[in-house]
UniProtKB/TrEMBL annotation, chains A, B:
Gene3D superfamilies documented for this protein: Tetracycline Repressor, domain 2
Organism: Streptomyces iconiensis
DNA-binding found in the keyword field: yes
Name of the molecule in the record: TetR/AcrR family transcriptional regulator
Sorted UniProt keywords: DNA-binding
Lineage: superkingdom: Bacteria
Domain HTH tetR-type: 14-74
Keyword DNA-binding in record: yes
Alphabetized Pfam families for the sequence: TetR_N
DNA-binding feature ranges: 37-56
Amino acid sequence: MTSTARRPSRVAKLPPRERVLDAAEQLFQSEGIRRVSVQAIAERAETTKMAIYRHFETKDALVAEWLRIVAADYQAAFDRVETEHPDRPREQIMGLARFIAEGLPAISHRGCPFINSLAELPDRSHPARQVIEKHKAHQTRRLVGMCTDAGLPDPEQAAAEITFVLEGAQVSTHNGSIDQTGDRLMRIVDGILNRPHSPLDTPRTTAT
Amino acid sequence: MTSTARRPSRVAKLPPRERVLDAAEQLFQSEGIRRVSVQAIAERAETTKMAIYRHFETKDALVAEWLRIVAADYQAAFDRVETEHPDRPREQIMGLARFIAEGLPAISHRGCPFINSLAELPDRSHPARQVIEKHKAHQTRRLVGMCTDAGLPDPEQAAAEITFVLEGAQVSTHNGSIDQTGDRLMRIVDGILNRPHSPLDTPRTTAT
DNA sequence: TCCGCTCGATACCGATGGGTATCGTTTGGG
DNA sequence: CCCAAACGATACCCATCGGTATCGAGCGGA
């Protein structure tokens, strides 16, 4: 999840812009956006506020850039499961579920960055919001594609169900209302993929 | 969801404390907690900041009180479906799902108050956090009870799945990544309840 | 060598916001 | 009728925070 492997994450002699993004990543994730001041980011990045404003127009721009990076991490996860399980859409989806499930412990204190940012940025005009919406739309499209490839009946509905479950698992992990969310999540997704789709049964509710 | 039926919601000649709670409810829901100043609440309630601080120790206490009210609304929804469908746990659960599904359009701009508050209040020690956790735990307990009564194999797992789906539907509605979330949600919950439980699969607690 | 860019440091500005003090006015119960 | 409590209004204090201005030190390239 928080992609601690992307960059050394050890603030060292990286160029300041990278150090700032590293620091922002850590602080935004653990403390939230609005609770973290630019000053705090500067200190954590071992630089100054001025240096930050040389690289980013405003704090909002920095937030948007951070979310772009997080989105790229998720995209990378999609890419990885696709290359690891070529032409095996079911295993690709299970790989995605595992990616989320394994990230759950890391977000148990603090939630999913997208969900949190959505709550912290009510303005739809905020640049970060557009990053999120674009990312989510792209992710949904890709998941629907996998469900289609997996031969699931009504792939859009299946993608919706998987999305709901993935998001919900993160929320429930965050508020601690349910235990063993990782295991439960894997079992649920497995159940969705291996559901016996009785051909007589399907024309029940107003399916598309 | 936002329970516009609970109180007149029309700021009139209610006692100031009620007017403050009304105003806080509307503003916190639509704008978020941290973006709403006490001053703004006072203006909306047609009173002053001082009057607010006569009834609430701090802003945090007001936030907690607001969430207590929201939680009570949800509890009322539980009570309602139980009395409307006595001894029919499946219909009770469907009623809950419908309660959430019908609330989705109202939260399409802004998300579920609990999820949002969780994101806005990272401190586990915040009084509002304890309200949320207590409420979520209670809700989970009740849902597990319904699943048990419904004779579902592994009721805890079923309750987890339903919870995930309900939370996820709210998140996905908020970020707009999926369309027709209400219909999809109802179909999913229906599928969970009417799933053919293969008798070999789960020799678990065959609770009544 | 010298020019220009980036970097670091500090001080500052203006706005916002939580919370308090004060004072005059309303209001309802004994 | 009278008093005390609650109310409304205003002004204020102080901390935080986004963003800016300035100045001097390093540093790479021509």
